[in-house]
Amino acid sequence: MAAALSPSRFIIFPAIFFLIVLIPLYLSPINRNRGILLLLRLTTPLSQLNLSETLQTSLPPSPLPNINDSADHGASSTNKISTSFREERSHVERIEDGLARARAAIRRAIQTRNYTSGKEETFIPRGVVYRNPYAFHQSHIEMEKRLKIWAYREGEQPLMHDAPANNIYGIEGQFMDEVESGKSQFAAAHPEEANVFYIPMSMVRIVHFMYEPPHYEGQWIPRLVTHYIHFLAHKYPYWNRSSGADHFLLSCHDWAPDVSSLKPDLYKHFIRALCNANTSERFQPIRDISIPEINIPPGKLGPPHLDQPPNKRPILAFFAGGAHGYVRSVLFNYWKEKDTEIQVFERLPQNRNYTKLMGDSKFCLCPSGYEVASPRIVEAIAVGCVPMIIGDHYSLPFSDVLDWSKFSLIITSDKIPEIKKILKAISTETYLRMQKRVKQVQRHFVINQPAKPYDMLHMILHSLWLRRINVRLPS
Question: Running DSSP on this structure, what letter comes out for residue 114?
């Protein structure tokens, strides 16, 4: 029988949260004004940005806070409110005008099959791996010109403004460092110039400091995040004017989707950038962002890259990994150490090298683990191995612009017994085309410090950018 959750934990969790998050919030020097939480709802759901049409969703006008001024304030108070409203309106109008220009440029690129840029382009995306290369290229150009992110300053480490930069959850820290380092071209100097707002919380740090295994009481993560959002909505106008549609949180932790479980209406338009992009668990591709899961070794920025030519890859398919979750249990049941062409291991023999085996394989099996995402997809792409993605309900990263069917195989778990049959049916010509395309998309799955155009961090930012230009704030 599992031990009962210690009553002291219910005292410690709120105490830690109060000390680390709430007190620093109230001491923040940025803006001490207090607003009223006004949760708006969109009249229509957010539409997926169709790069062939570039759709937008408009938000209804935001009502003003109900401010009960005393008679002593008189006309002076009214004038201050009026001036503040005009300034806020001008900021929003300026932002929306820039986004409207970006949408128009994307439409023009689609129609003319060309691009417009004020600088020399070092990379021009072309080919069938892109759903619409002209739209993607122009959209990325516009993002570099116009995307501005404000990372809220409130809160203290370790739960805020700090995240792991290595190992399986390392993308959290890599992204946070890129946005908060002060060196990024996308960082807004002031919240009024921002068109996107970042909630700089680390689910990994929260779980590490506030979770006591083996117990998981499912409300404390969403409660903590919701308290922070409520504070921001009281303090600033930005959440209220968009209903959170221009706010986002990024996390690779398995439990990150839970942030919106406590009050779904509050997070109806909030953008969650997740590795665990499971469409059967409330992940919505038209609103949320699927980010790659990548294992980042200490001192490095990702898995090793190999360049073994196709004719030097004697293994048809390879996988090695732990028995995590249903999909892998089925895979092991059918293929674990049972076939010389489909090489599947739970534990590799000590005399065999994992990365070399991937580099020697034509196809790399990438089954889901406990959750849908797998770091093996990025590992396979890094070594030029065509990924065979095995799982159910997984919304793949960067699917807004990348056509995964051109450089990977995607099968559901019920097709696991047919893996060999499926792979044997692929002609040499088809394999060579797919392998060449894997190498073509490698740049999109590489982390650089600082980030570079079209690398993984820029691709995540571009996914965010697409969702932002698909929303029009009221003026």
Answer: -
